Amino acid sequence: MNKIGSTLKIVWRIAIPYFRSEDKRAGRWLLGAVIAIELSLVANDVLLNQWRNRFYNALQEKDWEGFVREMLVFCGLAAIAVLLSVYQLYLNQWLQVRWRRWMTTKYLDGWLSSANHYRMQLQGEGADNPDQRLADDVKLFVAQTLGIGVGLLSSIVSLASFVVILWGLSEAAPLQLFGADFSLPGYLVWASLVYAIFGTALTQWIGSPLVSLNFLQQHYEADYRFDLVRVRENTEQIALLKGEGAERERLLGRFRLIVENWYAIMNRTKRLTAFTSSYAQAAVIIPFILVTPAYFANKILLGALMQTAEAFGKVQDALSFFVSAYRSLAEWRAVIDRLDGFETSIKDAADLATRPPKIDVVTADGNAIDLAKLLVKLPNGAPMVAVDGLRIAGNEHVLVTGPSGAGKSTLFRAIAGIWPFGEGVIVVPAKATLMMLPQRPYFPIGTLKAAIVYPASPDAFSSALVEQTLIAVGLPQFASRLEEAAHWNRMLSLGEQQRLGIARALLHEPQYLFLDEATASLDEASEAVLYRLLAEKLKTTTIVSIGHRSTLEAFHKGHIVLTREGDRFAARERQKKDAVS
Description:
Blueprint: H1 2-15, H2 24-60, H3 64-111, H4 116-123, H5 130-172, E1 175-177, E2 180-182, H6 187-207, H7 210-233, H8 235-240, H9 244-296, H10 302-319, H11 321-324, H12 326-352, E3 359-364, E4 369-377, E5 383-387, E6 390-392, E7 397-401, H13 408-416, E8 422-429, E9 434-437, E10 446-447, H14 448-453, H15 463-472, E11 485-486, H16 488-491, H17 494-508, E12 512-516, H18 524-537, E13 542-546, E14 558-565, E15 568-574
Parallel strand pairs: 3-8, 5-15, 7-13, 7-14, 9-12, 12-13
Antiparallel strand pairs: 1-2, 4-5, 4-6, 4-8, 10-11, 14-15
């Protein structure tokens, strides 16, 4: 019961915000319509149950007029049932797409808010495979919550409706054993209840492992899909390293987990299906076993017998909702657990940015970035880089050097405000625009123009200006391809990607430009040309570079060096000198 209660609390927490959102009017109206139609379908079933009594009595009594009349009544009830079923499905799907759209927007906002997606990745497996959460789990949650919720409501209403009918039929067809009548009020209801409790208990015992097995199956499937995407995105390096054999073994290892877990699901499902199918078949004959003696004793007519059989089936189905929907419930529980974990990861990542001790990135008047008593740490809490009293003045060109692993790139991440581990203060000029260019820049799939001007919209810059910029950074062959759509991170060499990164910086003209080995794949002559271009075009931009080449010193007036001091590295500023123009 505790698990059921905790699961329902999670479902309520995930589901109810939609019905309190800006789309609540449409959502509530659609949900109300779906529920109203379901109640109407139950009412129609009750009318059909009563019709079945009259119809079979007409057959038994060879009443032609009654037969024709009941056939016309059936046509009317059947037409109503078809109409209700069609519109229930239509409105259910309409509600699903609106609800899913709202949840997707909500999760995307939380995931992509203020570098949350990056911090979630740093937290580990609690936020693994966000693509699965957003693409599959949201869809499954909406569909299964509606399906199970409406099914449960239908079972409850059907139970209330048909219990009354079955109780009355129990009086009309008293229990007969060995030719004697036994007065047991509502014995058909009690028989249905005992049978349902028996079936529910055995179903839970047989099928309970399916919850964890379904959870693992989705996890393994997502990991396998993620590794396939990784192989697709790194085909060149795999080919150069002749790593096809290693990738094949790794992918087959991932797939082996899928197959092994699937076999476990198959075996458990086979047992569950064997029981639930037997349970459903046995439920068909039980009412006949109980009531047929009264029929042969001429206590009831054929119509009452058939009505009793159907009413017993409706009550038994309602009481056995858990049995018939167990597989769906197991899958639903796994989806709930994954979405709950995703929501928790989003919240934890947001808290990570505000929970002390933390790195405070604050704004102030002035034109310099100041780092005071800053200690950047690793995710495990180990100290990495200590900086105190360091200033990056406006309109300066500063080079940052140090051994590999000293934390130079992590220091840039801290200045950008996305690294949550550490403490201290980073003061950034108010309304300053910062741009970080890593060694491998990111280009979204789309047109070349959209890739270059990202994150701005393609119409933020004229095509003529983008063409001129491409020519300036040494890529004139791409100037005529701005409207060509492609996966540019895969199509271009790393050197070409770095030139496009510089083009992006030239177009956006940030006040502070941080280059994290952003020209390391170019030869020294080409690198020098691009640095001179930056100095010429971005005259008021502060440029901070990470690099290992000594030739970079000529293009930077300031120089910050990271050196080992005990268990951490410390940043020290060397004496300024004139930079090459």
